[in-house]
Every structure is written in structure tokens, then in C-alpha cells.
Amino acid sequence: MRRLIATMKIALLALRRNKLRTLLTMLGMIIGVGAVIAMVGIGNGAKSQIENQIASLGQNVILIFSGSMTRGGVHSGWGGAGTLSVDDAEAIQREIPGVTVVSPEVRSTTQIAAGNQNWATQILGESADYLTLRQWPTTAGSMFTEQDVRSANKVAIIGQTIADQLYPGEDPIGQILRIKSAPFIIVGILKPKGMSMMGSDQDDVVVVPYTSAMKRLFGMTMLRTINVQTASPTLLSPVQQQITELMRQRHRIGMGRDDDFTVRTQQEIADAMTEQSKTMTYLLAAIAAVSLVVGGIGIMNIMLVSVTERTREIGIRMAVGARGYDILLQFLTEAFTLSVIGGIIGIAMGIGVSKIIEAWKHWPVATPLLWILASFFVSAAVGIFFGFYPARKASQLDPIDALRYE
Q: Three-state DSSP class for 233?
């Protein structure tokens, strides 16, 4: 232990002789580790945000999208063609065990107005159970009722953005909101949810009974989406299969023919989106890791220069009794110290950059302790790996030749 401490002191003294060169040598390691920590933190923050957004859909949710359509070579994707009906939604509720909530959905973007204020927003046509499915409470008023849905009453729930834009400083409950010139009475205000992962405002929305949206606003006869909630997570997969079979039967889709609908569970959507985020995180981390290799090469280069500059010193140490192992340990310790100090500074810099981005762009960051520890040990390993060759070269110098070196 005493020998190791002495070796550490000698290594630190050697590094302090050329402070600028030492700093520049560590720079590659600092940038590499800092970039890895920052990229992983941002990537994990994005993953966390995606998971929160998926969770905001509700618990144990299955989404059924109507089929796609192609016009002039343009493919519309999910929901492009209305192939789902209200009868389909009622059949799912009636015939599939384990289903607790079904909310037929239509959506469109249109202009709304109140007094002399107007605003373009998204209109959602939903069932009376929609807020229960989404786990989305109101801050004032309440959700419209099943009777409102059956009677296609002109009632609406508004998001906080609508309240702020059209009713600044007022209580919107009970007031008239004109949607495409049709007067709707506001019965509730949704609890704010903020921005979505795609950057859209989730509070910029008006929810009305789907029957009112179809009959009184948009003249629709078909649905674009059906939201389904199961009693437990274990039922998601079997209920998804039963919905697929029921829809194929109701839509008279024969064997070998493609479905005119798409059924996705909340977990499938979450897995697909987090997988993309994970792939991007690993890609960014891999690119940043190149800096670690560059930093390691820089350490090797400087250590080789140091061996050449200190050849006479090495000869003197060997002449007074130092063994090859002692010389090897000394130069390896110097390389290790360079990379570890650089790694620690890099970790601090990476976390600092992450926090700056979080405060500046309001983008969540999350750097797992595992990645911090991994970065530290990788930086140490890089120092040992790239420092071994110069250290070995120093330990193999002939003492007589070393003493003659000028």
C-alpha cells in the first residue's frame, strides 16, 4: 500500500509539471464522457416522457382504428377511412367479457367562438365514460351524461387552453360555446395536462357527445376510432384477439383477406415508441463514445511522448533499484489518473449540460446511476488499455541506454 501511495504521488507530480498538456490530454476523455452522460440523460428523459404520455391514455386501454384508404397513390394510414360503426362499439361492449368501458370516437378540427373571441381547436366526440377511461378529471363542473349522448345534446367539456383563450377571467361553466355556429353549453373544464410528446397542447380540446359530433357538427355516419378499457392488464391480449375476431366476423372479412381495421393495445403502442427512443439513445451514446476512443488515443500519444522525454529519469530510477514492474506501474498510474480525472469532470459536465437543457428547453432528463458508474469505469478502463503500451515500453528500457540518453 505504501508503494502504491508513493507511485500515485510521483504520477501526480509528473502530471503537474505540464499542466496545460495534461488538461488538453484529458479533454478528449472529458468531452467523450460528458457527451455520453448528456445524450443518455436526454434519451432517457424522452423515454420517460413517452411512457407518461402513453399512461395518460388511461389504464388497460385498447385502441381500434378504422382502416386506411388510398387515393391518387397517397396512403392515408390508420383511421383514413371510416370502417367502424357505432354498432361495432356496442357489439364489443355487449359480446366481449372483460371489457369495462367503450368509447366510440370521432375527431375533427374546426373553428369555435364565444362572444367576440374565436379559436381553432380539436373537437373530440366521445361517450360519457371517456374521462373515466382516460383517467382525466375535471377541475370544474362534470362530464356530460349518458342521457346527453343518447339525445345528442349540445353540451361540451373544454380544456384549460380553451377556457383561457375564450373566457379570460370568467367562469365558463354554463356559458355558450359556438362550434361551427351550433351553440353548445359548457358543463365542465378538464384538468390541465400540458404538452404532449409531439409538442401539441393536450388542453386545446373540446369534448362533446359522439352522437352530437356525428349528427349536429360533422354529418358523419362512421367512426374513426373506438377506445376500449379492460378490467385488468392480463385481459389486454385475450380481449384484443376477441375484438379482432368479432370485427372480422361483423365486417364479413374472409380467410386470407386483410383487416379493414387495426387493433392495438396500450402496451404495444408504448413498446413501439419507447423502442424508437431507446434506439436513438444508443445511437447517440455510440457516437459520443467515439470521443472516448479519441481521448484514449490522445492519452497513449502523450504517454509515449512522456516516456521519450523522461528516458534519463527512468534510467536513474532503475540504477537506484527500481524494477521494470515499478516503472510499468508508475506510467500506468499516470495514464489511469489522467483518464479517471477526465472521466469525473466529464460526468459532472454531462450532468450539468443535461440540467441546462432541462431548464432551457423544459425537456425532462434522467441519467441513471448505472450509466454514471459505467462511464466512470469505462474511462478508467480506457486509461489502462491505452496507457499499457507506453508503460510497458518504459519498463523495458535498458538502464545503461537510458542513462546515456540526452
A: helix
